[in-house]
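Need residues for this backbone.
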């Protein structure tokens, strides 16, 4: 197995790559993973896989500009011989491509007649049609597609209907906390809110800060912990959040804690998890983690995020990009805390069954073996 991923961080698709690799190794595969340097490397080698690094072009928004396009072309030309050399050295029976934004791996794998399975974690449903078609075009050269939600499948097949026969939805497997800390019986003192994830405009973290400001104006005592960091090159987002805290007078109520690979202590301390995404989400790992931790949630009513949270009782859905709606939902949860607390505890049991790693690995293994 030759597996590849554009990032070596510990967010979303990269974390699912780790769980996939763990399953492949457990099944007896020799697994070689090609990723850049990062915190994921040591975790992958600890699971028994080999790690290699080859520079590879990744489709980013920066390539829409002339300078970015030139850099992309130069990197592609430099990468081709190195990637081919790695493929010929490993001689994989199958290649597992972690996302759709690494088209070179799919193209070269096709040329070398290596069976390809691509794991689709993207769903740019609001992107222009040409962008969606271009992103999905390389998938026409794969054998099978593992797709993380029905919403992601629809985005793909709306542009390329012929991909439907290759798609199989496999919901992410998410490991829960070592022990579930039940929500506190009474909301004594400040309501403790939590945001976990990338710090970006599309994730709507600004709306969470604005919701705190609105609640404070209403006389509601709330505090918000923000656990996460920016993608390299987006450091301006932290500056924006700092300025927003100062402008809204919430500096003592909103706390930027940075990235932490262990989110469970933060969830154990929180009362309500906020997931305020503004744009389409292919899935919603954070929503599953919130359910596993038995926490009531306020979730944007968007795409795959709703799909991940479907069936959980302690979830309030709100329109995206509306801080006032987030504030209203938080008040509603607080007003009926006992009811939401009981529902969240029941959700944790349901989430552990629906999103178990054992189910995820078995489903993925069946697809790989079929190829």
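Answer:
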């Amino acid at each position: 197995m030759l597996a590849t991923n554009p990032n070596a961080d510990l967010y979303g698709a990269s974390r699912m790559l780790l769980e996939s690799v763990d399953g492949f190794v457990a099944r007896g595969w020799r697994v070689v993973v090609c990723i850049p340097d990062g915190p994921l490397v040591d975790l992958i080698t600890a699971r028994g896989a080999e790690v290699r690094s080859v520079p590879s072009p990744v489709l980013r928004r920066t390539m829409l500009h002339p300078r970015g396009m030139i850099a992309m072309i130069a990197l592609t030309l430099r990468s081709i011989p190195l990637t081919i050399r790695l493929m010929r050295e490993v001689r994989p029976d199958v290649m597992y491509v972690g996302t759709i934004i690494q088209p070179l791996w799919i193209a070269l794998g096709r040329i070398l007649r290596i069976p390809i399975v691509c794991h689709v974690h993207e769903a740019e449903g609001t992107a222009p049609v040409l962008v969606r078609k271009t992103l999905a075009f390389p998938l026409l050269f794969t054998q099978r597609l593992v797709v993380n939600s029905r919403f992601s499948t629809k985005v793909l097949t709306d542009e390329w209907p012929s991909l439907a026969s290759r798609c199989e939805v496999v919901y992410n497997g998410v490991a829960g906390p070592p022990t579930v800390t039940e929500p506190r019986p009474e909301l004594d003192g400040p309501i403790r809110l939590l945001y976990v994830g990338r710090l970006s405009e599309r994730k709507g973290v600004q709306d969470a800060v604005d919701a705190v400001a609105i609640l404070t104006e209403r006389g509601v005592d709330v505090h918000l912990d923000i656990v996460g960091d920016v993608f390299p090159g987006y450091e301006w987002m932290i500056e924006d959040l700092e300025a927003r805290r100062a402008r809204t007078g919430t500096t003592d109520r909103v706390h930027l804690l940075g990235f932490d690979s262990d989110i469970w202590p933060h969830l154990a301390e929180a009362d309500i998890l906020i997931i305020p995404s503004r744009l389409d989400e292919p899935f919603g790992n954070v929503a599953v983690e919130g359910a596993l931790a038995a926490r009531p949630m306020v979730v944007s009513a968007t795409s795959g995020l709703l799909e991940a949270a479907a069936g959980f009782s302690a979830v309030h859905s709100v329109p995206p990009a509306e801080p006032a709606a987030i504030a209203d939902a938080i008040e509603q949860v607080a007003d009926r805390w006992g009811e939401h607390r009981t529902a969240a505890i029941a959700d944790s049991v349901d989430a552990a069954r629906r999103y178990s790693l054992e189910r995820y690995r078995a489903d993925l293994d069946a697809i790989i073996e079929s190829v």
